[in-house]
Amino acid sequence: MKDKVTNILISGVGGQGILLASEVLSEVLMLAGYDVKKNEIHGMAQRGGSVVSHIRFGTKVYSSIIPEGEGDLLLGFELLETYRYLPLLRQGAKVVANDLKILPPPVTLGKEKYPENIQEKIKKAFPDTLLVNGIELATRAGNPRTVNVALLGSMVGALPIEAELWRETLRRMVPERFLDMNLMAFDLGRQAASAQS
User: Does pTM surpass 0.90?
Assistant: First the structure.
């Protein structure tokens, strides 16, 4: 896998911890010896707008933006945002999605409708889809704010990185008072993914 460029997208809404998740993922990949390029695109992030992070890794990576139709893996923190970024994926790509709906302002104002059967639409477009209840996992870990780390844990099996390297990176990047709950969230995410595979 080191000789080709692998493309990962992380999508969601502002305030979900996407930027920290992309930092942790990039750090893990660098520690594993890959060249890594990362780019974040923010909507109205502070107001719950769309946020997407592009992470590309391989022996040598020249651009941080994933071309349309070339994404290998999408980690979605919210269902509509997962659905929104499916066009960036190649055919046969893997999707790991948080089974969560956050209603965007046009929906809460009654101007638009949240798409029906969105989980089924995602799975139909990309059969290799894993749906994870990130909130439940994070709550079991002791803090709902650890959803981002639980979701990272649920995508570990899709990457050629040892779990211990992930833990080492979390120890480096997460403040000590939050470390135990984040490590637990990570392990719960891994267990949830392996239980469905």
Answer: yes
Measured distance CA(18)–CA(120) in Å, rounded: 24
Check if the beta carbon of residue 64 is closer than 8 Å to that of residue 5. no
11-59: pLDDT as tens digits: 999 889 899 999 999 999 999 999 999 998 766 545 568 899 999 999 9
Radius of gyration in angstroms for the set of CA atoms belonging to the chain, rounded to a whole number: 16
- Where exactly are the structural domains of the chain? 6-134+155-171
CATH architecture assignment, domain 6-134+155-171: 3-Layer(aba) Sandwich (3.40)
Q: Compute CA 37 distance to the chain's CA centroid, rounded to the nearest angstrom.
A: 16
pLDDT at 155 over 60: yes
Strand arrangement of the beta sheet that strand 129-132 belongs to: 35-42, 50-58, 6-13, 71-76, 89-98, 129-132
- Give me the half-sphere count of Cα atoms (radius 13 Å) on the Cβ side of residue 154: 34
